[in-house]
Amino acid sequence: MSNVAGETKVVSLYQSQKKIYAKSVVGRFANLRVFMVFFTQAIFYGLAWLPWNGRQAVLFDLNARKFYIFDWVFWPQDVLYLTFILIVSAYALFFVTAIAGRVFCGYACPQTVYTEIFMWIENKFEGDRGARIKLDQSPMSANKLWRKGGKHFFWVLIGLWTGFTFVGYFTPIHTLMHEVLSLSTGPWETFWIFFYAFATWGNAGFMREQVCKYMCPYARFQSVMFDRDTMIVTYDQARGEPRGGRKKSADPAALNLGSCVDCSLCVQVCPTGIDIRQGLQYECIGCSACIDVCDTVMDKMSYPRGLIRYSTENALEKHWDMAAIRTHMLRPRIIVYFSVLMLLVGGLAASLILRSPLKVDVIRDQRVLAREVEGRYIENIYKLNVMNTAERAQRFLVTVDGLPDAEINRGGLISAEPASTAASSVAVRIPVDAVKPGSHTIHFKVQSELDAAVSVTEKTVFLVPR
Question: 457 and 380 share a domain?
Fold first, then answer.
């Protein structure tokens, strides 16, 4: 509220949202989006049902604190791999964005993918843009109720199946299916199924472009990764202006017009409701629906395609062709992103390849630091926690070195079930006069009996009392 010249004026800080009725479009980029919908959802919905070594191929078992990803079994101690994956994903996003803008948003982002699915269902029940506008403006009737109700019925089904699949990555999906059919799901499973279903239904069915424009942080910091040689969806203003309607047989030059016929179809097909002819805008998700529809208009008018196209700001200003654009893609920013990305990917791959299926923790028994036994030995007690990450049972032989005549009196053989931990109390003894009193370094070597290459050596101390 403000007071100007004695007048009270109310200023609203809320911007009313006008519903966007995106028109369906066909073309090469639309076909690519359809392919990405099937590709991404085949992975998401199908991977949870893929069997692997007698279990689910990808399972994040939070209760057992084990993550299964094909042949790998990860434990809480492997959080470093998660850090690596997140860093690799971030740099991959930077790299792709610097080259081709928001192509991830336009083709692979879950918000875009599910919005495409929900809009396809909406078109089947309510028709294309004009029919949907007319239906929304019409009074309630049996026809309107049937179309709206049918649309929401399938929206809710997809949302519930999505929520079920999501939870199926944390609870074995066959077990979860049995629980759902018998109405015996646990409280957290029930909560997350319905929460994820509600989020899918709300985001893809109602919020749509508002998620991209106001909730997604990527839209805000994308400009940091853009430069004048980044490929973006652009409108060729030099060719298109001045815009205006005309007959197909008319000569644009004679009418002092550009190629743009001002049909506004590029606005009607935009899922975020922007006008690409106004230049680069942060709301643009790079879906290229405007390119497809503009090419269709150019074909009808017998004009060359490409009034709206993927290009760069420098290419538009300097009238570069695609060959020139490609030569300018290799620039310092791209080289740095690519180099760092390859180093990270190489490091992650090497660590996974060289990853040992055996982990060992050595803990000294604090109750008995050191003691004399049988009148001629000094004995220390240790607890060895052995983690077998392989999916087969293993037996591990424990040996010790570092002190003369050191030997293991008991606990030298440890058996571990597949993908499990085992503990053993190990007694190490040396002759009384073998070394001077004090603290001495020793090494435990734990080696698999099935594979000699699988072994771990851990350092600890052996105490000799004074």
Answer: yes
